[in-house]
Design brief:
Elements lengths: L13 H8 L22 H11 L4 E10 L2 E8 L4 E10 L2 E10 L2 E6 L1 H8 L3 H6 L5 E4 L3 H4 L10 H5 L2 E7 L3 E2 L2 E11 L5 E9 L6 E6 L11 E11 L10 E2 L14
Parallel strand pairs: 6-13
Antiparallel strand pairs: 1-2, 1-12, 2-3, 3-4, 4-5, 5-6, 7-9, 8-9, 9-10, 10-11, 11-12
Length: about 260
């Protein structure tokens, strides 16, 4: 199995997670700017900046699917002011890792099958079986474990869609029934190479993300990362309730005690 998509990065967006763990991805040309018609259209940089600003205070429902080296990562979630939730499933052949993650205030919660507890969080084989499908809790002040729930609050949404410039316009598309502007940028992998990313935002009104595509048009290859995140229900506010019974993950996860446990 390739490097695990949850190992060294936050799981806020699936495409970002897999892109960061790619060992080597060829740099693809960004291509010429394809600015939409109309003299009043702002620059791609301005549209991107306005989008980042607009999403910082809005809740959203997101569905993400990313593929690389035979591994598929699917994430479905909702963000809120002080709480949020997501379900993550990783499949590689017959191996299936499933985890539900939630944040309520300053506490994070995870519930996972034994495979995910073993491979994602790093519990021992015995503890992975013992605590499978049980709620485990941890303070988000613990940097090691906080990555399991980062991105689930409205204030963290922008970090999940950030791209690197320079920004150009790609060909406008109609996405999920919305006329969009297509802003093209790049994302960096752990190896330092860059891959193209296109962010589709609504063409009228305050720009909000409709879809983000990683490595669009890449050659079909098991080593190439491909990812799509779709956004809907902008303005929703997820209000999650903490599980009634939990077990402290701090005592179970190796290395977790190195962060704050308060």
């Amino acid at each position: 199995m390739p490097p695990h998509p949850f190992r060294s990065v936050a799981t806020a967006t699936a495409t970002a997670s897999l892109a960061a763990t790619a060992a080597a991805v060829a740099t693809l040309a960004v291509g010429p700017s394809a600015a939409p018609a109309g003299a009043a259209t702002p620059s791609a940089q301005s549209t991107y900046d306005a989008t980042i600003k607009a999403v910082t205070q809005k809740g959203v429902h997101f569905v993400s699917v990313a593929k690389q080296s035979g591994t598929t990562l699917r994430v479905v979630g909702d963000t809120g002011v002080s709480s949020g939730t997501q379900s993550l499933t990783v499949t590689h052949g017959s191996t299936v890792e499933h985890m539900h993650a939630m944040v309520v205030g300053s506490t994070g919660y995870v519930q996972a099958n034994s495979t995910a507890l073993r491979n994602v969080i790093g519990l021992s084989a015995a503890n992975s079986k013992k605590y499978a499908n049980k709620w485990l809790s941890f303070p988000t002040s613990n940097g090691t474990l906080a990555s399991l729930v980062v991105g689930l609050k409205n204030s963290e949404v922008a970090s999940g869609i950030k791209m690197n410039g320079p920004f150009t316009y790609d060909k406008p598309q109609t996405v999920a029934g919305h006329k969009t502007l297509a802003v093209r940028g790049t994302a960096s992998t752990q190896s330092g190479s860059k891959i193209p990313v296109v962010l589709y935002v609504n063409a009228t009104g305050t720009p909000k993300p409709i879809e983000q595509v990683t490595n669009p048009g890449a050659a079909k290859s098991s080593s190439n990362i491909e990812g799509t995140v779709t956004f809907s229900n902008w303005g929703e506010n997820s209000k999650e309730t903490a599980p009634a019974h939990t077990v402290s993950l701090l005592k179970l996860a190796p290395g977790s005690s190195s962060g704050s446990s308060k």
